[in-house]
Amino acid sequence: MxxxxxxxxxxxxxxxxxxxxxxxxxxxxxxxxxxxxFADGNAxxxxxxxxxxxxxxxxxxxxxxxxxxxQLPRRAMLVTLDLIRxxxxxxxxxxxxxxxxxxxxxxxxxxxxxxxxxxxxTIPDVLPDEDDYTNALSLSRLAYDLEKVGSPxxxxxxxxxxxxxxxxxxxxxxxLASASLVVSVLLPDPKPAEPRSIYERTTRGIRLYxxxxxxxxxxxxxxxVAAGGSMVFVNTVVLVQSVxxxxxxxTAIALAAFGLGSMLAALLLPRLLxxxxxxxxxxxxxxxxxxxxxxxxxxTSYAGIVVVWAVIGIGYSLVLTPSGRILRRSASPEDRPxxxxxxxxxxxxxxxxxxxxxxxxxxxxGLTATYAALAVLTGFGAVLAAWLWPAAxxxxxxxxxxxxxxxxxxxxxxxxxxGHEHAHPxxxxxxxx
Length: 433
Fold this sequence. Notes:
Layout: H1 8-39, H2 43-69, H3 74-91, H4 98-126, H5 130-159, H6 167-183, H7 198-211, H8 213-243, H9 248-275, H10 278-297, H11 302-320, H12 323-329, H13 336-364, H14 367-388, E1 396-400, E2 414-416, E3 419-424
Antiparallel strand pairs: 1-3, 2-3
Helix pairs in contact: 1-2, 1-4, 1-5, 1-6, 2-4, 2-7, 2-13, 3-4, 3-6, 4-13, 5-9, 7-8, 7-13, 8-9, 8-10, 8-11, 8-13, 8-14, 9-11, 10-11, 10-14, 13-14
C-alpha cells in the first residue's frame, strides 16, 4: 500500500491532506471549548447548530462552487482555498459572540466544500492505475480515521502547555503547510470539452447520479452508511456516560474502537478488492452494519459496545473506501470534479437526515428503538442499492458510430457494421450521451 507514496505528486498531496486534517481536528476541539465559554451551559445547542451549518454548507456549496471553479487551475484553486481557511482560523480566537462563530464556521466549511471534491477528483488523474488509486483510497481512509484519534490526543497534550485559543494556531499552520505542499507540485487540469452554462455545470454531477445505475446504487449506499454511522457519532456519549455512567475517557475509547475497525478494513481492502468487485464488497459492508446494529440492541455491557463499534467501523470502511473507484470509472476526467462534488453534497445530505434522526429517536423512543430503526434504514439502503445497481451493469456493450477509427476511446474495439463496438463500465460523457 505504501508504495504509492513513491509518486512525488501524490505524496505531497497526501501529506497536505494529513496535515490539514490534524489542523481541522485541533479547530474542532477549540470550537467545543469556545462554545462552552460562550453558551453559558448551552454548549450542546451551539455545537449542534455549528454541525448543522457545516452540513448545509457541504450540501449547498459543493456543486455550486465546483461549477464556478472548474475552469480554474486546480493548484491555484486548492492553494487559495487553503489560504481562505487559514484566514478564517486566524479570526476564530478573536470572536466575541456566537453569531460571529456561526458566520466564520460557514465560511470555513464553504471553503472546505469547494476544496475537498476538487482534491478528491485530482487523485485519479495523478494515479491513473486502478491498483495505485485503490491504495490511495485506503490511505485516505486511514488518514481520516487517524485524525479522529490523533487530533484529540494532540489537543490534550497542547492544552497542558497553552490556552485553547492557541490551538487555532495549529489549524493555521496546518492549512498553510497544506498550501505549501500543494504549490510544490504540478497538478493536471482537465478542461471541459465544450462550454456549458452555470446551470449545466452546477447540475452535471447530480444528473450523472440520476442516469448511471452504479451511481444511483452508491447514493443508496451513502444512506445506509450514514444510518449505521450516526448511531456511533450521535449516541456513543449517551450510551457510555448516561446509560453506563462511565467517564469521558471511556467514550473516547469506544470512539477509538470504531476508528480502529475502520482502519483495519482500510488496510485489508486493497487485497480484498483484487478478489471481489466493488459492488459485492460494499454490499457486504452494509450487511456488517446491519448485523452490528442488531447485536447492539442486545448489548448491555461496555465491552460489548466497544466490540459492536469496532464492527460498525469495519462495515463503514467497507462501504465508503471503494466509493472513489465507483466515481472514477463513472465519468471522464473533465466531469470528475462535478461528480465528486455531487457525491460530497449528496452523501452529506444523507448525514443531515440521519444525524437528527438518531438523536431524536434516542431521546424520545429509547436507544433500543434507535438501534432497530437505524438497522432498518441501513437495510433499506442496502436493498435499494442492490436493486438500482445490477451486477451485470458493469459490462455494457455498445456501438460508437461517430468516432474516427484512430480515436483513443475506441482503441481495441471490434469493427462492426455501423462503427466500432466495445464494452466498458457504464458512463455518461461526451461519447456516451
